[in-house]
Amino acid sequence: MKLLIKNSGFTFMILMLSVMIMVSGCSLKKSEKVTLTFWNGFTGGDRPAIEELVKRFNEKFPDITVTMDIQPWDTLLGKLPTSLSTGGPDIVGFNSAQIPRYAKGNLILPVDELYDGDLKGAFPDGLINGLTYNGKIYGAPANFATVMMYYNKDLFTAAGLDANNPPKTWDEWKDAIIKTTKVDGNDKQYGLVLADHATIPMWPSLVWGNGGNFISDDGKKGLMNDEKTVGAYKYWADLVIANGITPTGLTGPEADKLFEAGKAAMEMNGPWATTSYTAAGLNYDVAPVPAGPGGPVTLADMIALVVGKNTKHKEEALKFMEFWNSKESQEYLSLKTGFPPTRSDMLDNKNFDQNPFVLKFSAAAPTARFYLAGLEEYGKINDDVIVPAIQEMTINKKDANAVLAEANTKLETILKGK
Fold first, then answer.
1. Stretch (H or E) spanning 7
2. In this structure, what are the phi and psi dihedrals at residue 173, rounded to the nearest 5 degrees?
3. d(C-alpha 191, C-alpha 265), whole Å
4. CB-side exposure of 398: number of CA atoms within 13 Å?
5. CB within 8 A of 195, min separation 6: which ones?
6. What would the mean pLDDT of 19-24 be, rounded to a whole number?
7. Are 341 and 347 in contact (CB under 8 A)?
8. What is the pLDDT of residue 17?
9. Cα separation of 389 and 364, whole Å?
10. Res 90: pLDDT
């Protein structure tokens, strides 16, 4: 009997020791530090704010460290497919138009569970649609932007234009562009800088402004040779060729540098540019893109945060995405960058009065449209069809009808999957 009691006590001690070891082991596992790699292309004026936000996350969650690799968008997208298929970053920030391609290729993970908590109902339907492929949500917004017309008030005044009354129609816009263009001699000044590649797309707003488009609503027919699309390209290509309103073949950063240096009177750009232009001491403001015959319209753009398929830390990645879109983080980013908040439940935030650009860019949302939205071959259509067509017309000065007819044939071949 005594032996049995001793054995029972010994067994109990062994069991207790095992439990302690298991608990200790769980604690050790729980306290292991996780490192998340985060690739993005935030190389512009919003970069310091992004870096500070990541720093704040790392301080708030000491068991998780996010390390960023910031590189130009074209460089990132060039190496991303191979990287994601072989290992790749845990989190990527890229244009939401890329989601269909990467989701179809099983290179990124669905994140529907992210929207069961604080983020449920936080975003407008348009943003959620831009993050969705085949009924599953594949990301969270890193930012949502509308494009507006930036204009240099000093150059307006020097050209005899009213700096407090920017153009509202294409006729007024054309007049202001020509009056602020000076291409004689060495000291050139451009009326409207238009980038055509490695940039947020600038030409779509011009095409839409004339009532044109690139692809039919059902995504099956090319509209590059549509009368209104051709008319838009002719109108603006003629201004480029005949009046020299912009250098041709510009990248986005090159166009930005011309405006920032006071060598361009106007540019279409998003809210990220306000930080660097303000720091440069420019006397500038923003206004809606002037309305063409097709009515007021501008580009909507969204950078999405997505999770790489090979991550071993999806839970931590989702925590980072939730932190990024918290009200506190969105208030910080909006005030620092001029971006509207991603959340639709923050538009009455009185603190946004501290940065007038937040409300100005927010006001443009009703007329904003996404470019080539939902198309798996977004990159191929833009890079192999639309950009070359623009350059054929503006750089090589080829006939718009012929160029766009050929472009439409290429476009429909891609749409048919041939």
1. helix 2-30
2. -65, -50
3. 5
4. 14
5. 202, 250, 251, 252, 254, 255
6. 47
7. yes
8. 45
9. 28
10. 98
SS3 call for 77: helix
Q: Phi/psi of residue 92, each to 5°?
A: -130, 140
- Whether residue 298 contacts residue 362, with contact meaning beta carbons closer than 8 Å, is answered with no
Count Cβ atoms below 10 Å from residue 253 Cβ, excluding itself. 13
* Of residues 303, 252, 284, 234, the one with CA closest to residue 38: 303
Determine what percent of the chain is predicted with pLDDT higher than 90: 81
| Secondary-structure breakdown of the chain: helix, strand, coil percentages, each rounded to the nearest 5 | 50, 20, 35
Q: What dihedral angle (degrees, nearest 10) is formed by the CA atoms of 100, 103, 107, 113?
A: 130
Helices 227-243 and 170-179: crossing angle in degrees, nearest 10, is 20
The pTM for the full model equals: 0.80
**Which pairs from 357-365 meet CB under 8 Å and 24+ separation?**
357/271, 357/274, 357/286, 358/271, 358/334, 360/148, 360/286, 361/145, 361/146, 361/148, 361/270, 361/271, 361/286, 362/146, 363/288, 364/146, 364/147, 364/148, 364/288, 364/298, 365/146, 365/300, 365/340
What is the rounded distance in angstroms from the CA atom of residue 251 to the CA atom of residue 358? Answer: 26
Tokens of residue 82, six digits? 């191979």
At 418 the pLDDT is 63
For residue 286, which of 384, 386, 146 has the smallest C-alpha distance? 146
CA–CA dist 62, 53 (Å, integer): 14
Cα–Cα distance, 229 to 411 (Å, whole number): 14
Q: How many CB atoms lie within 10 A of CB 23?
A: 10
Distance CA 216, CA 190 (A): 34
Q: How confident is the model at residue 201 (pLDDT cuts 50, 70, 90)?
A: very high
Task: Tell me what the mean pLDDT of segment 125-144 comes to.
Answer: 93
